[in-house]
Specification:
The protein is an alpha/beta fold. It contains twelve helices and 18 strands. The strands form four sheets. A nine-stranded mixed β-sheet has the order 2-1-16-15-14-3-4-12-13, with helices on both faces. Strands 9-8-5-10-11 form a five-stranded parallel β-sheet, with helices on both faces. Strands 6-7 form a two-stranded antiparallel sheet.
């Protein structure tokens, strides 16, 4: 069975690499997007964007940039999940869907275990704005502060206000609940807030970090951010050491330029500024976000994720079909994942190398 298709029809891998090179070389401003890849795949993709004088963006860059924007403008308190597991006597969970963004969150943080912090201490867990039924954790009593997605910014702002002793205009029952939570946060010996920017925005992350900063005036409080899907944090770090910038960076002038608006993938495609795209989603086969846009498209994804239109080349899943270095949420560090189900499929880096080898000699190296 072929590992490549063109408009849904099977073609050989060699023909696919030839066609991909033809599409990319003919483009005036190609886009390398998705970038759901391991570190080696991300390196190869960024080097390809540089060689083609195009741009690159990650499928979860909105989430990564929401946290990064706060780091750039105001600073941020963070720690590792392991430190939280050992020391946190209070865990503040913020926003809905945390178990979806990080399925192993409760096992890793060991919320049902006592903390070792100058003597064993039972943990206190507060969750602001969980989904319905999400706050049920085996062996853990979770105090919830209800908030819909639309209400969450206001509730978080009110909680920060009460931590700082500032008044809020809320019904008595709601104010009482927030006051109790605020006192718990201030009384923590080592508090940790856990959030995912996929469920918040940069202003909410900034507000949360502002509250953490205020808490650190009298106690110790920090945060554990949950990284975006598709190895978003690993790709961001790879991009930073290669270019000095995160994703949403272009090479049109021969050197890297970062602009979160100019080089956003969907905008480049929908505006017509990008005239060809290489989409990489090796982990999940997630499709590009743009719809009904007629652009020459090359997709690198796992078997079974081939789109009906465009050129598709199947690649292995990092850490599953081949050994891969990626960012590990559980340790907040880069790790080597050994292949759990090896398969005879090219890695993302190998597929990009095979495409690059088909470029004509007059393309700059």
């Amino acid at each position: 069975m072929s590992n490549a298709t063109l408009d849904g029809k099977s073609i050989s891998s060699e023909d696919a690499y030839e066609k991909a090179a033809e599409i990319l070389q003919a483009a005036n401003f190609p886009l390398v997007a998705g970038l759901g890849a391991d570190v080696a795949g991300a390196q190869a993709a960024i080097l390809l964007a540089e060689r083609l004088r195009g741009a690159f963006d990650h499928l979860a860059s909105r989430d990564s940039l929401a946290d990064l924007e706060v780091v750039r403008s105001a600073g941020i308190f963070v720690t590792t999940p392991n430190e939280a597991r050992v020391r946190a006597d209070l865990v503040l969970l913020v926003g809905p869907g945390l178990t979806g963004y990080w399925p192993a969150i409760f096992d890793r943080l060991a919320l049902d275990k006592e903390t070792v912090h100058g003597g064993k201490t039972a943990r206190r867990v507060i969750w602001v704005g969980p989904k319905r039924g999400e706050a049920k954790i085996d062996g853990v009593e979770v105090e919830t502060i209800p908030a819909t997605e639309a209400e969450l910014p206001g509730v978080l702002a009110a909680l920060r206000a009460r931590v700082g002793g500032r008044p809020v205009a809320l019904p008595a029952a709601a104010a009482k609940k927030l006051d109790a939570a605020a006192e718990a946060l201030k009384s923590a010996r080592f508090g940790v807030a856990v959030w995912s920017a996929a469920g918040l925005d940069s202003l909410m992350v900034e507000m949360l970090q502002g509250m953490i900063t205020e808490l650190n005036a009298t106690t110790r409080f920090t945060g554990v951010p949950i990284g975006g899907r598709g190895n978003a944090t690993g790709v961001l770090q790879t991009s930073a050491w290669m270019t000095g910038f995160p994703p949403r960076t272009g090479f049109g002038r021969g050197y890297p330029e970062h602009d979160t608006w100019r080089f956003e993938a969907s905008r480049l495609v929908e505006s017509g500024e990008a005239d060809a795209a290489l989409w990489i989603s090796a982990y999940s086969g997630e499709a590009p976000p743009w719809e009904d846009v007629d652009i020459p498209l090359i997709t690198l994804g796992p078997p079974g994720s081939a789109p009906k239109h465009g050129l598709f080349i199947a690649v292995g899943k990092p850490g599953e079909n081949y050994d891969a270095v990626e960012f590990a949420q559980e340790t907040s560090s880069m790790v080597l994942r050994r292949a759990s189900a090896p398969a005879e499929l090219p890695t993302v880096a190998e597929a990009i190398a095979a495409i690059s080898a088909k470029f004509s000699e007059d393309l700059p190296c």
